[in-house]
């Protein structure tokens, strides 16, 4: 049987993905924006709709970073509302495992799973800094290794709670004693229609890959080439056996962008224009300052990279994950800039591009099919550059071609997100 492709829609909510200056760009908060994108995804028979999350507004130079999205509704609230206006589409929320507690979060996801008829998913993320922790009573932050151990125990504890009702609908007492949690009582929500909500994880580190192999149902990743995608795919899938899992028990879905045109040349021109508008002169300097940790506002974005070294101890930027050792990144950017004669803005454009599929609908359908057939992915999470209409053309013009190729469904085959993804129903333990 031809390997089937999975598709999901990501609602843009962070960074400079959205081209705000486009006259078709609409609100990131109005419910009409969420319903438009979700209904478009369901019309295209997508597996799920994916919401990002952030627990604190980012700051830059001591002020709110106004080139970012400022304000974002709580994800589970939005998805609960979307459950009423969709029938089949999976509903995935990004919720933090560092500043939440298992009982309450398991209860909220179980409630969403019941309200939606078994379509809930949880993208498990962790927090990395005390800046975010200031919004919470407990405050502080966890070391990297502790963040993953807490997250793993968090998910395991949530699953114990979801399993605590008997098949005949009787609640049983639960008790969990572990390194991070010690709880007992009775769970208030019966076992949900798909057993457990689907668990999503994002991360490319060794710890992240191991966490995905042991715990996740979906990995949300990003890889810029077919070769990189195949390496990641083979590595993560090879880790599953040690946890008693099969390769098909985990779906690998990179986040990608798609740009369509009547010809490949037109699509390439549109893609270049989108990148220029995403990386404005102001955004280019901000991106540079995030690496260098210095105020570089006096530099010309169309000029060369600064010759000064980064400040590794800077707190110029707060609320953003560091991209690695600043000296290593700066050296890499300088080498690229010198080799290609790139300005600051051009360097940022070249280094910050997400994996994109660019071309006519037919060529994009062929590229997507090749990635899946080559075991570089099981499917894709599409990140549009416009809210809320950024997937309209893809659903209208690319999805029918994928269906004609026999690599994507023409109708939903079951009622739950697990049935869309071909994932097994969890066996109740205890």
Automatic annotation (TrEMBL):
GO molecular-function terms, A-Z: monooxygenase activity
Transmembrane segments: none
Luciferase-like domain mapped to chain residues: 26-339
UniProt KW keywords: Flavoprotein, FMN, Monooxygenase, Oxidoreductase
InterPro entries linked: Diverse_substr_monoxygenases (IPR051260), Luciferase-like_dom (IPR011251), Luciferase-like_sf (IPR036661), NTA_MOA (IPR016215)
Pfam families to which the protein is assigned, alphabetical: Bac_luciferase
EC number: 1.14.-.-
Family: Belongs to the NtaA/SnaA/DszA monooxygenase family.
Protein name (database record): NtaA/DmoA family FMN-dependent monooxygenase
Organism: Streptomyces melanogenes
